[in-house]
Amino acid sequence: MNIILLGPPGAGKGTQAQRLQADLGMVQLSTGDMLRAAVASGSELGKQAKGLMDAGQLVPDALIVGLIKDRIAQPDCAKGFILDGFPRTEAQAVALDKMLAEGGLKLDRVVEMEVDEKALTERVVGRFTCAKCGTGYHDSFKRPKVDGVCDVCGSKDFTRRKDDNAETMKTRMTAYRAQTEPLLPYYRARGVLKTVDGMAAMDEVYRQIRAVLAGA
Ligand code: AMP
Question: Sorting pLDDT into bands at 50, 70 and 90, what band is 215?
Answer without folding.
Answer: confident
